[in-house]
Design a protein that fits this description.
- The chain has helices spanning 26-41, 74-79, 101-108, 115-138, 141-161, 166-194, 206-220, 235-249, 270-276, 282-291, 305-310, 312-315, and strands at 5-9, 19-20, 44-46, 49-50, 56-57, 64-65, 68-73, 85-87, 98-99, 225-227, 230-232.
- Helix 3 packs antiparallel against helix 4 (115-138), helix 5 packs antiparallel against helix 6 and helix 6 (166-194) packs parallel to helix 7.
- It is elongated and about 95 Å long.
- The strands form four sheets. It has a three-stranded antiparallel sheet.
- Among the domains are: 1-99, Deoxyribonuclease I, Chain A; 222-250, no CATH class.
- The protein is mainly alpha-helical and 319 residues long.
- The longest helix has 29 residues, at 166-194.
Length: 319
């Protein structure tokens, strides 16, 4: 379905646990099922709220609901998985503001200096924040999945023996939703690592993606290098041979340049010459960033073009 990120007040909930102090009439139940069915049918990921459970509060505090949410597609998570949703303390409005970790970290970093230094330090600080967020959101994914599966299985067995009360039914649903989100996040992480172009929706892809990662590592590895009649296998010998080859290849030569014998090739006009030295415009740079492949290997700073494309409006002034 493409890269989708839908943010706003939907004025609807997906479960009764997202409302307190509000009577769920028959019409509201139908609306709730319809909204949940829409999210499931469109295969959207509902980003969990961090910081608070609800985003709307009645003025007298008697009722509260989670009406504001962010829905993203799987493709959007693959392109840019480093995002989170925080519910901050509200002001006079009855809704709480939602902010992204990247924008907040970028804005709060007040480092000064020349532009290259500012960019380096902001990326460095952002990396720390993203690592903290990743540890909270995706740390110990395998262990969390195992624990969720065991908890769901315990509830299933209890339901077969004695039946489940309403609270246990709700708990099982919450555990299943959390497990589903965790599995989707793991698939997106593996996809980004493998940089595979063959993802099809609905694949049981963990084994496939691990195979892609292993195959790519093996394909890129240099286990031996032949120099003349000698095979080099030591990593130190291979590194020295590669460095020596490219040093010779790109070294300046002092050969006599050929004489063109009075040939006068066409020359660029003054206007064409001037066009070659025109400074780059922000629009040209932005267009190149947009057209780039976001899943290519990241640079030395560990940020790939998917990050630049999705955070361009935040970081473009420092770039």
């Amino acid at each position: 379905m493409g890269n989708w990120c839908v943010v706003g007040d939907f004025n609807a909930v997906v479960s009764s646990e997202e409302r307190i102090g509000v009577t769920l009439e028959t019409a509201r139940n139908v609306e709730m099922r319809a909204f949940g069915g829409f999210i499931e049918e469109m295969n959207l990921i509902d980003l969990p709220c961090l910081g608070r459970r609800f985003t709307w509060y009645h003025a007298n505090g008697s009722s509260m609901s989670r009406l504001d949410r962010v829905l993203v597609s799987t493709e959007w998570m693959v392109s840019w998985g480093n995002c989170s949703l925080w519910v901050l303390p509200r002001d006079l409005s009855d809704h709480c503001p939602l902010v992204e970790v990247v924008e907040e970290a970028w804005r709060e970093n007040g480092v000064r200096g020349w532009m290259g230094f500012i960019l380096k330090e902001k990326l460095k600080g952002l990396k720390v924040r993203l690592k903290e967020w990743n540890k909270v959101e995706f740390g110990n994914m395998d262990l969390r999945s195992k624990n969720l599966i065991e908890d769901i299985q315990d509830l299933d067995i209890r339901g077969e023996l004695t039946g489940l009360d309403s609270q246990e039914v709700t708990l099982r649903k919450e555990l299943f939703v959390e497990l589903w989100k965790l599995q989707k996040s793991k698939e997106a992480l593996l996809f980004q690592r493998s940089r595979s172009k063959w993802l099809t929706q609905g694949d049981a892809n963990s084994k496939f993606f691990h195979g892609c990662i292993v195959a790519r590592n093996k394909r890129n590895a240099i286990t031996a290098l032949k120099e003349g009649d000698i095979w080099l296998e030591s990593p130190t010998q291979i590194r020295e041979a590669v460095e020596a080859f490219f040093s010779r290849h790109f070294s300046a030569s002092h050969r006599t340049r050929p004489n063109l014998g009075g040939i006068h090739p066409p020359r660029l006009s003054l206007e064409d010459q001037a066009s070659l030295t025109v400074p780059f415009t922000l629009e040209e740079i932005e267009q190149d960033v947009i057209e780039s492949d976001g899943n290519k290997s990241p640079g030395p700073d560990d940020f790939n073009f998917a990050f630049l494309k999705n955070c361009w409006n935040i970081i473009k002034d420092e770039i």
